[in-house]
């Protein structure tokens, strides 16, 4: 069973934070940043979930990450990780497909859509 973890992108601060607690009653999200624990309002953030997978370099793969897909049928594609029930998917040139849980080493995280959006523009 995988651990369910979140991180949050602050739209106001333009920074990624590790989430330590979520209040579904108040909508507040507590984060940690260099030992400081703070609170972000629900309207300031975009919650991103950990996929439970590690890429070929043992880097965690998160929703919103930009990855190089090195699998045989999609080799070399730059893709974005997103969640669509019932699981995580990658979207790149030519469509989207379910992430391979059996061979996550076929992916390589190169950034995320919030901090490195230029990686997507370079491909188009």
Briefly, what is this?
This protein is mainly β and 124 residues long. It is 5% helix and 52% strand. β7 (65-69) and β8 form a beta hairpin.
Commentary on this structure:
The protein is mainly beta. The chain has 2 domains: 41 residues, SH3 type barrels, CATH 2.30.30; 71 residues, YopX-like domains (SH3 type barrels, Roll). Helix content is 5%, strand content 52%. It contains 1 helix and 11 strands; from the N terminus they run βββββββββββα. A 6-stranded antiparallel beta sheet has the order 4-3-2-1-5-6, with no helix packed on it. Strand 2 and strand 3 form a beta hairpin. The protein is globular and about 45 Å long. 21% of the residues are buried. The model has no long low-confidence stretch (mean pLDDT 87).
